[in-house]
Structure prediction request, 451 residues.
Amino acid sequence: MESYDIVVVGAGPGGSGAAYHAARKGLRVLMVEKRQEIGAPKRCGEGLSRGGLKRIGFDFDPSWARREIKGATAIAPNGRRVVVDYEGGEGWVLERKMFDKWLAEKAAEAGARVMARTEAVKVLKKDGIVSGVRLRNDEKEWEVKTPLVIAADGVESKVAREMGIDTTLKLSDVASGYQYEMSNIEIDPDRIELYFGNDSMAPGGYVWIFPKGKRTANVGIGVRKPFAKKTAKEYLDDFIGSRESLRRGSVIEVNSGAVPVGGLLKNMVSQGFIVVGDAAHQVNPIHGGGIPEAFVGGRIAAEVAAEAKQAGDFSAEFLSRYNRRWWEERGKILQKICILREVVERLSDDELNWLAEHLRGEELIQFSKSKGFAILAKLLMKKPRLIPLARKLL
Amino acid sequence: MVEVSRGKCIRCSGCVSVCPQGALTFTEHGIVCDLDKCTECGICVSFCPAGALKRKG
Prediction:
């Protein structure tokens, strides 16, 4: 029987992060992906900042970049625009299909074995100890031996649930997303645009336009219950239908999905098992971006996997150092950003308009980091109704 | 149980991630609801970005 040090389930950024780093450390790695094509279908707006790529740790490669982005524009409900120029911090709109394959290639080149269209049917246990994985490809089923499974199987998180880790997302911790990749539309080709409007445009979320070309962009929305009264698709269709610049465009791809924007897990391990990426809700809760988060989660899991192999100890207790390290490196900051999200989503359209008048671009960019807190809190303090929200940030 | 409109469902499997009972499974034929596990709480119906799910019964 084939034998591996780790089996990684799912070949998105989280899986490839784990597989790449584990293979680099000399572990024998198998990464399986149930879909026939890695990176498709995407459930993603495809934005990646230069800082995000830096955290992933690879150099830029033109194969996956559809468009270089110079900045962002946040647009208030009344149309007021706050422009953010990313000095030295630009980013890209990706082609996920290319990007995810590129990451999987990095893992393969580092020595991991990668198998697309291969499903992990079941994690096998012997006397309660993880002993392998049952795999399926076409109509063939077989078993491989491994003491450690890393689940990077996306937001539905099937494997983690099977392993007894409750990864169910509360309705309040998940954004409902819908997106069209549109062509022949009028857009700002150099900046991403984020449209806010909690009253009726995108309750509890925002609309994004991420340019992939001069006249092509991902036009998407994330909304959240209990704020949203309609489906994400209906809100997005209304947004597009009300805009001359978009409504005559063509739709070349349709995506939808669940984006975890909270519900960070205290425990992401069990005996012989670690969960990473969307499956572990490792997403930035203010904008819903998860590519670098997943890759970093995978990298930390790989480090712990190597140490576990050396110690010959795959107990939940040993693996729990993954929880500690992830919380130290990412969890603490993401938890704080979660509070920011809870504040922003409670602002009415009038309050968002007011905020847009008083915020400068260079302040706004701090919002995906914790520095934005003090800036926002100071502003909110000026409005009596918002003082309780401001206190949440301090 | 929930009824899935095959026409509206775009197979994102978001409903699977919010179901507290683990009653929904994503298969090659689309979303399948396990009648024994479903408590008709309606969370998946509220979540679905495409409005493809309806409570039935």
About this structure: Chain A is about 35% helix and 25% strand. Residues 381 and 388 of chain A are 8 Å apart (CA to CA). Chain A touches chain B at residues 41, 43, 154-158, 161, 167-171, 174, 176-178, 225, 231-234, 254-258, 260 (CB under 8 Å).
